[in-house]
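Consider the tokenized backbone below.
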């Protein structure tokens, strides 16, 4: 790479779109850097920079090349603040893409070095944005929000700040703020990445048709293989969540034709294959996904598939790996909480998730996991408000509905329990190889409702009010009759005494 090109690439700033499972991180910002008059095609580092400018995910080899380029440049130019920001953001991106927690301290050192060379007060928003993305990669949503809002205040039209803010607000459970940030992002920028973001926001609100249509837009706008893989993986995710594993399998297969080792697509294909009864192939894909991008949710799902097949040794190995590993994922606390709730110590799960809740991490995922952990720890009354919060936000999740139904069943609320268990299986009859059969068994145990008896917990609020008013009226009439009878008795006594 020529010196001019190398200096230009030092102005790249990378930011990852940190979502629920970091399924598709993206290089999000780049000033105009490419030498348009260059006679030769761009190299890998320049391709990564070009992808960043378009707001698209870079191919992993190009990202690795960009890291090597910046490391080499900084050995001779240690005072280059923009290059330190590039390197720090790229480390975060690689750590998220590969699930390698070792990259996150490297990212922090590089970003802090950038601020040391060019302080925030002198306009170094790149490093501040990089620190926000790093906080999100670690699941520190409060820190991500603070950095993101600081950058937005300094540069309100900097569009790549808003994906970070969307993730931070979602992680803190502030969904109205996340929607406003999404609206602002759409005003400032377009393209496949932004349409994909919008699709996720619609999905989170329960607007499935809008989410599907927008996800299709994102796939049509995708310009590179990495973008196309991310877009078709999203379409696979949506099909899976609708309870259509065959369509999901097709979408994930398309994604893998664009990027053959795309970890989120491999994980999605593993889920779909398991739901279709092709469990051997599903286990193969779980191994491949974990080899490519070791994320805690992949380890948990692989273990639960093994447990459902009676492969207890494989399941135990997966759970042990999950407990002992270091994970570069913002979902770590939720996944470890669910692991302990179902396969370990539910009391420890409650403590872990209550600590996350106390830090302000109040997403639907944390609410659901905390409610489930409380139920598993024998506290269904405390669990109920959290489980309701998870299902009331709009996201239609078979797993969340199942958890709520089991909690209501434990509380003797048979009407709502039956409805929510039915809802879980209606949304997705095979939502989990381990828990879907348990949902079906719980529903069968409840049995059909008695058509001649409507349980109170199955009545509408209006009917409950009518019943309450009728009961109060009956009570008043009974009290009046009692008083009249007492007066008659008193009169009879006085007559006898006279």
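A designed sequence for it:
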């Amino acid at each position: 790479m020529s010196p001019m090109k190398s200096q230009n690439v030092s102005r790249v700033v990378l930011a990852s779109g940190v979502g629920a499972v970091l399924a598709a991180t993206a290089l999000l910002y780049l000033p105009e850097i490419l030498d348009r008059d260059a006679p030769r095609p761009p190299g890998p580092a320049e391709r990564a920079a070009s992808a960043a400018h378009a707001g698209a995910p870079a191919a992993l080899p190009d990202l690795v090349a960009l890291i090597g380029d910046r490391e080499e440049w900084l050995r001779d130019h240690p005072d280059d603040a923009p290059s330190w920001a590039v390197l720090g953001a790229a480390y975060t991106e690689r750590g998220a893409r590969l699930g390698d927690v070792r990259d996150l301290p490297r990212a922090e050192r590089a970003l802090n070095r950038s601020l040391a060379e060019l302080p925030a007060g002198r306009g170094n928003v790149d490093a501040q944005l990089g620190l926000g993305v790093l906080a999100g990669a670690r699941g520190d949503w409060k820190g991500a929000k603070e950095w993101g809002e600081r950058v937005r205040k300094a540069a309100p039209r900097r569009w790549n700040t808003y994906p970070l803010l969307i993730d931070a607000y979602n992680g803190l459970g502030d969904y109205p703020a996340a929607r406003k940030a999404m609206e602002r992002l759409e005003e400032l920028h377009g393209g496949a990445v932004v349409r994909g973001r919008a699709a996720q926001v619609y999905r989170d609100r329960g607007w499935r048709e809008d989410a599907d249509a927008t996800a299709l837009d994102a796939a049509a706008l995708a310009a590179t293989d990495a973008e196309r893989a991310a877009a078709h993986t999203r379409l696979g995710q949506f099909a899976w969540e609708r309870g259509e594993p065959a369509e999901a399998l097709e979408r994930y297969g398309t994604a893998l034709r664009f990027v053959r080792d795309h970890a989120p697509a491999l994980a999605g294909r593993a889920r779909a294959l398991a739901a279709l009864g092709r469990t051997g192939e599903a286990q193969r894909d779980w191994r491949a996904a974990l080899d490519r991008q070791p994320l805690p949710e992949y380890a948990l799902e692989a273990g639960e598939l093994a447990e459902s097949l009676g492969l207890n040794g494989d399941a135990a190995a997966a759970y042990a790996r999950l407990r002992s590993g270091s994970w570069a994922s913002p979902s770590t606390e939720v996944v470890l909480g669910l692991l302990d709730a179902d396969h370990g110590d539910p009391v420890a799960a409650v403590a872990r998730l209550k600590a996350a809740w106390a830090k302000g991490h109040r997403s639907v995922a944390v609410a659901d996991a905390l409610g489930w952990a409380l139920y598993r720890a024998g506290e269904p009354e405390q669990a109920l408000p959290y489980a309701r919060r998870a299902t009331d936000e709009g996201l239609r999740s078979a797993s969340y509905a199942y958890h709520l139904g089991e909690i209501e069943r434990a509380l003797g609320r048979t009407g709502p329990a039956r409805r929510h268990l039915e809802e879980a299986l209606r949304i997705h009859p095979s939502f989990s190889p381990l828990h879907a059969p348990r949902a079906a068994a719980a529903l069968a145990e409840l049995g059909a409702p008695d058509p001649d008896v409507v349980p109170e917990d199955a009545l509408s609020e209006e009917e409950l009010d009518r019943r309450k008013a009728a009961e109060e009226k009956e009570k008043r009439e009974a009290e009046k009759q009692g008083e009249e009878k007492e007066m008659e008795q008193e009169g009879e006594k006085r007559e006898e005494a006279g």
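Residues 331-449 form a domain with the Serine Threonine Protein Phosphatase 5, Tetratricopeptide repeat fold (CATH 1.25.40.10).
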